[in-house]
Design goal:
Layout (H helix, E strand, L loop, with lengths): L1 H13 L11 H8 L3 H13 L3 E4 L3 E4 L4 H23 L9 H16 L2 H17 L4 H22 L5 H15 L3 H12 L7 H8 L7
Helix pairs in contact: 1-3, 1-6, 1-7, 2-3, 4-6, 4-7, 4-9, 5-6, 5-8, 6-7, 8-9
Length: 217
Amino acid sequence: MVEQAAESIVAAAARGLFLPGDRLVEAEIARDLGISRVPVREALRLLESQGIVVSTPYKGMRLMQVTNAGVAALMRVRLALESLAIREALRQPGPAARFAALEAAALGYDQACRLDDPALIVLADGEFHAELCRLSGNAPLLALWQGLARQLAVIWGLARQTAPSEAPAAGHQQIIAALAAGDEADALAALEAHMDWHLDFDFEAVVAERRKPPAGL
């Protein structure tokens, strides 16, 4: 139940129900989820340990702040992890069919896009990249990536609320094609191109725009 509550909080952030810096009130979340406050309290502590929630004296629990500089730093770490995953995945023995799970994850992303729910799109995108890390056969690498996954979900959620989802889908296919061909250079180039969208995305401006009161109020 704690994990489910944590996932629900992250999904709400991906849908824009919580914005970066918003206070997360334990009692309100428990009421909305129809559960007791105990698992919500534990979920908030779990999310705090993962950097998604920040506890400030006299201000309570708040969703992580999102800044352009912070996103850039996080994406550099993510690129390093996934680049290593590609190198190690290509060193694993076996035919191209070993990438079938990655293809299935890409299909899952395409299906999520048709539902037009930012939280489901973010979840499916995360599953694709988790599978890429899983293919490396490197358990510590996967664990490190999963430690960043929920922070990435909050960031991706902000982007998905304002940007189309077609570009990531195309990027997934380019990465898969390069892996299936055994071309490390192309796979790394496809990964970097797939991730560089954040360079032109102003997260701070999106948050500021979302915080504006509705017109006429």
